[in-house]
TrEMBL record:
The active site is at 86 (for sulfotransferase activity). This is Sulfotransferase. InterPro entries: NST/OST (IPR037359), P-loop_NTPase (IPR027417), Sulfotransferase_dom (IPR000863). Keywords: Disulfide bond, Glycoprotein, Transferase. One of its GO terms (molecular function) is [heparan sulfate]-glucosamine 3-sulfotransferase activity. 3'-phosphoadenylyl sulfate binds at residues 178, 300, 318-329. It comes from Oikopleura dioica. Pfam families: Sulfotransfer_1. Residues 82-345 form the Sulfotransferase domain. Its EC number is 2.8.2.-. Belongs to the sulfotransferase 1 family. It is an enzyme of class 2 (transferase). Disulfide bonds join 301-313.
Length: 366
């Protein structure tokens, strides 16, 4: 065998060896990459109270509702909206009230069930907060704060064990932002404290560690009736939906609760209306053709089913987080967003079991 031919054979063998080496390295890399992706993520910082579906709807109420007035054209509610705060509870009621079989209170929010002084007044007191209605119509009262008030589920059950509950949820961080700016425009007890912060970023820096430590030290009991012992923290804790929903589900079975996605109410309200009308067993008169986008605000308006020439739009105040003169007031740093996502993660995971399906803000967990 001449030297030229030998050299060619050696070169071919070297080439084949390099190809095999590259292939093996590629396989090793892919195996590493897959094992990295499949590796468990960082453990949750907190383990919430486990969900026990066998207990749902079983707890009896010890509350007594005084039926000290007659039902006339004002009837007891057969449906209530309970929040969450700043997720679209009011927008839902405004739109659905275009259905003549859905009668909502003239008050934007009733704020009746959790107040002891009003509860003691019985139906005679409650009538002032309720709409007129006829037999076969839905009498509805909605207050976003009801979700987090510990005494409300028992009181709602005392009024009617068949009460239907409407819950609207939304992205916890987006809700936090909206709650923060909303509070600065109110006379609520913690408004002045919130106003002392230069922006939401400084608030999160100060309060997220406090809330986290309180939950670690005291468990979920810290979240109960937060408005009465640490109201400033409610800006954050109002987004811990699973804790409050677990409490509601002690009194009412899952089939009596409608869960709505606030993002869907905002972007595709006709889908929300269809679900609500089916749940409340009223005629589906609000459909996709009744809704259109208001070019001035970017939000949906609706045409009245009985007269398509008449329209209804949400109040401009509903878009306040998008209408700030200084948008940086509600900006969060990237590390803060990650910290908040980590904070809400263990509670959001539970929503898969509670709600039974994913929503726009926790699709990765179900």
């Amino acid at each position: 065998m001449d030297m030229l031919r030998l050299r060619r054979i050696i070169l071919v063998l070297l080439f084949l060896g390099s190809v095999i080496l590259v292939f093996k390295n590629e396989q090793a890399y892919r195996q590493f990459e897959l094992s990295f992706l499949d590796s468990p993520e960082t453990p949750d910082w907190f383990t919430p109270v486990p969900i026990d579906k066998s207990l749902w709807g079983k707890q009896e109420t010890t509350e007594i509702f005084k039926m000290n007035a007659e039902e006339d054209d004002i009837r007891l509610p057969n449906a209530i909206g309970v929040g969450a705060k700043k997720c679209g509870t009011i927008a839902f009621a405004y739109f659905l009230s275009l259905n003549p079989d859905f009668r909502r209170t003239g008050y934007t929010e009733g704020h009746w069930l959790y107040k002891d002084s009003q509860w003691k007044g019985g139906f005679q007191s409650y009538k002032r907060k309720l709409p007129t209605s006829e037999s076969g119509q839905i009498s509805y009262e909605g207050t976003p704060r009801y979700l987090v008030e510990a005494n409300v589920p028992a009181r709602a059950k005392a009024i009617s064990e068949d009460m239907k509950i409407v819950v609207t949820l939304c992205d916890p961080i987006k809700r936090l932002r909206s709650d923060f700016i909303h509070t600065t425009l109110t006379t609520e007890p913690h408004a002045q404290e919130i106003k002392r912060f230069a922006n939401i970023s400084s608030f999160v820096d100060a309060w997220l560690p406090k809330v986290k430590n309180n939950i670690i030290e005291n468990g979920e009991e810290y979240l109960t009736d937060i408005y009465y012992h640490d109201i400033t923290a409610s800006i954050i804790t109002n987004s811990i939906y699973s804790h409050y929903l677990n409490h509601w589900l002690k009194f009412f079975p899952r089939e009596q609760i409608l869960f709505l996605d606030g993002e869907e109410t905002l972007k595709e309200p006709y889908k929300t209306m269809e679900k609500a009308q089916d749940f409340l067993n009223i005629d589906n008169v609000l459909r996709k053709e009744h809704f259109f986008v208001n070019e001035e605000t970017g939000y949906y308006c609706a045409k009245r089913p009985e007269n398509m020439k008449k329209t209804f739009c949400l109040p401009k105040s509903k878009g306040r987080t998008g209408n700030l003169a200084d948008p940086s007031y509600l900006e969060l740093r990237e590390d803060q967003v990650k910290a908040l996502e980590e904070f809400f993660r263990p509670f959001n995971r539970q929503l898969c079991d509670i709600v039974g399906h994913s929503m726009s803000f926790y699709t990765d967990y179900c």
